[in-house]
Amino acid sequence: MKMGEELPLQSSSNITNNRQSNHIMISYHWVRLLLIATAVKSILGLIILFLLLVGSIVVLIMGSYFRHSNHCPIEPNISRFLIIAGSASIEWIILSIFLSIITIILKHIRSLMLVLLIILIALIIIITNAFLLVWVIFGSIWTLKASETVQYTNSHLNTFCRQTLYQFTLGYLFVTYTLSVLQCWYRLCIIIFSSIQKR
Question: Is the entire prediction scored with pTM above 0.85?
């Protein structure tokens, strides 16, 4: 990419069909796909990201508050799961908000450094999401494994877990799986729509 060339961040029906703009669109189409996979393109999407950020902070706080093993001897990893999941979620949401703001404000990129920064951040987001997927599976195993024997009353038994901690974790897992399915569906629809619009 030479100085002065523009990289379109958003698909537009008004883009001219001259050879130069087509060359730029084709050459950097994969950068736009990275943005589709990691950023939102609307104010509503930003609001949703901010709400998810608040939720992730709550998850981190809950995990930190109940971090001592005596709060859940049946499965001490539950609080660790919440701490790491909350921290990683905060990271990818903040990076997604940054990329989303770039996508909303800028229609074209003229700087190679900015393109490289976008690629780096997008790759970090994808790696973090892959880690979170694996981590949520581990958290599900730890949480659901204890579901048949967990009790909330006698803290002296090794089957004890704080009701607030355990039920919060179950709720978090349910919300995480639901949002993951909705996010995959949304991203798939955007990619299909972008491909149709490009034709």
Answer: no
